[in-house]
Design brief:
The structure is a homodimer.
Chain A: H1 5-12, H2 16-24, H3 31-43, H4 50-57, E1 62-68, H5 74-88, E2 92-99, H6 102-112, E3 118-122, H7 128-132, E4 141-144, E5 154-158, H8 160-173, E6 179-183, H9 189-204, E7 214-216, H10 221-232, E8 240-243, H11 246-258, E9 268-270, E10 287-289, H12 292-308, E11 316-319, E12 322-324
Parallel strand pairs in A: 1-2, 1-3, 3-4, 4-5, 5-11, 6-7, 6-8, 8-9
Antiparallel strand pairs in A: 10-12
Helix pairs in contact in A: 1-2, 1-3, 5-12, 8-9, 10-11
Chain B binds a DNA duplex through helix 2 and helix 4.
Chain lengths: 343, 343
DNA sequence: TTGTAGGCGTTATCAG
DNA sequence: CTGATAACGCCTACAA
């Protein structure tokens, strides 16, 4: 049996109220008494019971994270960023992931009720408003990379449009006119925004998007592979490929290699995310960098603010991205406006 | 304010005890009363308060996971496996990750106290016994991929030795005698075991390990790149490279490409883990597959058993691995004894 | 089949 | 500075 506040009080010859004060640095306690209590507590290995504390204070010191079924390293890195902030504050992290549809997300949300002081929700396939009814009332929430601008909730998105715009503009500037787009699944918000960014770059350059040059993938290597073959069969063939994430770009690279198409001489290729492997494939991949841990960290910090100050205004923030030019797009890395990855 | 059991009781014209019975399917309740209570509860959106429940039952319905700072997708996939099992049982997952040393792990362990009914701990750099004193007493624990056999705790490891043995034997059988080993960090248990498996294969083939053919990496692409260059400079040069994980193998591939060394003609290459990209690099990577989600899932199932039956014997289990032959090692995929990945 | 009442371990409010 | 004591919301004998 773990010892309770009562054991400590008895052993130290004080009331439980005083022990409580010591453990919460609340109220004044005589230095001697404090020392005595500290000592007894250590000897008895006393640790306050979290449940009792929660029951009495209505605070859990825990934040909840609800995530969809994420592909690749995204999940790890988001959690890494969140966890770091959370630990720094001595809080805890309740995680629920791998939700594939709205029903599951809603169930997860319900399950979090009463167990967390705030929520980070990520559901790139769902509109924020659809979640509204199911979010526990009065609970601070940060929407991470959700569709919409977050509406009445705090929201944080990475700048998908800006990043896609930058890559596309880069390709256009280097003379490419027929650019094949390997898109993500259209129900996914990131995928839609990245496509939109590309379209805007086309428009700004006076070019127009050709529907036959857009092939949908699902963010997996395999789908990138397949899409590249499809685009390769077109007549005339595109001279550049922009995949909505690096995994698909890498799948495309492997397809091009098998087809004997040289990159970047015969076909420029670019991706999105700058996953670690991107610089180690052949040729190294031009892409858009976004710091996922930072995305998580910023979400956590925002949530803490919202918890601390419940009346604070909702905020909608955008995490900037960065074009990373490597060899796969044919431009000389380091040339022009683009940022160049260290070797 | 969320409604309490008392609100439901009043509204339904019964005592709180009866409402409690309904929500715990315990004791007999008249069908009519049950229906009435269910209905009222739904209308009031009543959800039992977890803290109160925990306080009175001493059960949290939560399992804790303590993980080190994991590289790449490993973390995601382990959690995916655990989370799936946990959700299936309607339990919760308290996560604490990114711990770099013993002090941090111990702090995390302490913080879990009283908040979880069981613990999955992963710390490939630490010996199980070192953790012993810091584990909350009497709490069911499963050690995941920890050094040692787990000792007095349940343990689950992937068959690192067996996998490494299989790759190495495969290379030896195809005529390679000078095999360069790119090892993981030696403080890491997986890394040590994989090296040991390779050594055992050497021994079984009557070959001996040459120290100059072993270069230490840290599981990152970059370190694999560097190690490959180092091995390439040897005279005579090795004819094959076995990296202790795929990331390093991919780094090595990029180094070989830059050096103009053809794979597999001039140098066979193999990795370990079978990460998704492994089959999309050039040439596709021969490696060892291990299902990480399954590793997590099995750990969770074992933990649930241990929680259900506190007196159950501690068990030490091994998750099998599987050799995946692709082009990078020069053997014809599908030939011989090896398992061949579908296209 | 249902109700009563004590207890789970803390915090917080009031008196002293 | 310190001590009683009433919540907090729920579970569970024990009674009825």
């Amino acid at each position: 049996m773990a010892s309770t506040i009562r054991d400590v009080a008895r052993e130290a010859g004080v009331s439980i109220a005083t022990v409580s004060r010591v453990f919460n640095n609340s109220g004044l306690v005589h230095e001697d008494t404090r020392r005595r209590i500290d000592e007894v507590a250590k000897r008895l290995r006393y640790i306050p019971n979290g449940a009792a504390r929660t029951l009495s204070t209505r605070r859990t010191q825990t934040i909840g994270v609800v995530l969809p079924d994420l592909y690749g390293e995204f999940f790890s890195e988001v959690i890494r960023g969140i966890d770091q902030e959370v630990q720094r504050s001595g809080w805890h992290l309740l995680v629920s992931s791998s939700h594939n549809d709205r029903v599951e997300i809603e169930a997860a949300l319900r399950a979090m009720r009463g167990r967390v002081d705030g929520l980070i929700v990520m559901s790139p396939d769902l509109d924020a408003h659809e979640l509204a009814q199911n979010l526990p009332e009065m609970l601070p929430v940060v929407l991470l990379n959700c569709a919409g601008d977050g509406g009445v909730y705090n929201s944080l998105n990475m700048d998908n449009r800006g990043g896609a715009y930058a890559v596309t503009e880069h390709l256009l500037r280097h003379g490419h006119r027929r650019i094949g787009l390997i898109t993500g699944p259209m129900r996914n918000h990131d995928a839609r925004e990245r496509l939109r960014g590309a379209h805007e770059a086309f428009a700004a350059a006076g070019a127009t998007a050709a529907p036959e040059l857009e092939v949908a993938g699902d963010f997996s290597e395999r789908s990138g592979h397949r899409a590249a073959l499809e685009l390769l069969a077109l007549e005339p063939r595109p001279t550049a490929l922009f995949a909505a994430n690096d995994s698909m770009a890498i799948g495309a690279l492997s397809a091009l290699r098998e087809a004997g198409v040289r990159v970047p001489e015969e076909m420029a290729v670019a991706g999105f995310d700058d996953i670690p492997i991107a610089r180690y494939v052949s040729p190294p991949l031009t892409t858009v960098r976004v710091s996922i841990p930072e995305l998580g960290g910023q979400a956590a910090r925002r949530l803490f603010e919202a918890i601390r100050d419940t009346k604070s205004e909702q905020r909608h923030e955008l995490l900037p991205t960065e074009l990373v030019v490597r060899r796969s797009c044919g431009a000389r890395p380091g040339s022009g406006e683009a940022w160049c990855a260290p070797p």
